[in-house]
Amino acid sequence: MAAAVALVTFVVSLALWWYAGPVVLPPLVWTAAAVVAALTVAPRTEPGAAAAVVPALPVVLLVLAVVVHLARHRVQHRRRAALNAELAATPFVISGPPDLDTGPPVAESSPEDLAHLRYALDIALQPLDRFDGFIVLEQYREGALRYQLTSLGTGLGMSQYTRTPAFSGYLAEAQRNAIEKMLDRRVWGYWRTENLWGNLSTSRDPLATDENIMLTGWHGTMLGFYALLNDRRYAEPGALTFRWSPEEAYPYDHHAVARQIHDGMDRSDYTLIPCEPNWVYTVCNAFGINAMLGHDRAHGSTYVEDLRERLRWSYEHEFLRPDGRIVGVRARHLGLSWNFWTGAAVQLNTVYWMHPAFPDLAQRAWWQLRRNELSLRDGRPVLPPRASNRVDVGSYRLGRDTFAQVAITMAAREIGDDEMAMPRPRCSRSGRRWRNATGRAATPTRRRW
Prior knowledge:
Layout: H1 2-20, H2 25-40, H3 50-87, E1 92-93, H4 111-124, H5 145-162, H6 169-181, H7 185-188, H8 190-199, H9 213-229, E2 240-245, E3 248-252, H10 254-267, E4 279-281, H11 282-299, H12 303-318, E5 329-331, H13 344-354, H14 359-372, E6 375-377, E7 380-382, E8 391-392, E9 397-398, H15 402-415, E10 444-445
Antiparallel strand pairs: 1-10, 2-3, 4-5, 6-7, 8-9
């Protein structure tokens, strides 16, 4: 019984290590279990079967894990050959970035668009110290305020860009509020705890690290949106000050945020950098790439071009399974990944945010989703009925596919696949030619791995 409790506790400690980065927890649990066992075991005059079973069990489990991994790897290699044969005959339309001088075709907001915009404005225009209407659960995982704020800010930015590009006013103010709410200690203060139990560091500075792209990447994406649509106020020194107390503050600006992402990636063996201490997520790094792209376009830096080939290599080799599925997470120090973190939600969100910098990789991932995961049922896109496809990652509730539908629509609109976008936009689709959100199309290409 005690052995079973120790095993379950250790597995839970591994889950918590992945959940919030406390690297000290698994070895502490392991050591504590060993100490308790040593202090409580009854003395034996003759060694029992446990003397042989206990030392052998880890070895057997390790060998079994290696055998399973090799078998699965071999199956994935066989799938890769079949998929590459199909990809060789499949044309893709790869579009370039939108022309900032002319911009995309401006559409009129529908009544539904305006209803959504009013709701977003109500949330964003409240006083900076209030978070009415936000879901406040914890600040470590997907339900954290920083992700809600980024969704709010970038959504408002896209509304301005595609509906009312000449209007700033309260729409720009709402975006500023989303940016500046990120400076509230309740949003970024989690880093003190994560840095302490994940890196054994007492630093509270959220940017004095090569990690924490779950803050810098998402915040930086909003900053790029705002700089390109409105003004460059956040480039002023100290414009972004993270204040811990009246006596302790960390002054930064847009340049510092983009530079921190670039320099951290430049120093990383994977090029991609961690969110939580140790854990590298592909979708968070896609936000980091967009943060650098926004800064490059607004301020003339070359951060993405400096790293482009290394980033491509990482996404193509370090974070791609042999069968073409994106690896959602990998441990920086150990190289481990969780196989379940390659589900449709990971693929869909990475497709959307990867497309601006690496449209060919995003198109290939979308093609694979269309082939293996997505289908239409009564004109509505559906995913296989797995638990991971029916979870609201903002509230951690199971049973509905709302988040999945949003992710499908975002990725389909960005790729230009009108058939999978819900609701269907007014633009039409001709044959297999897809148009992206800018309405532009370019030379067909083919991508394999």
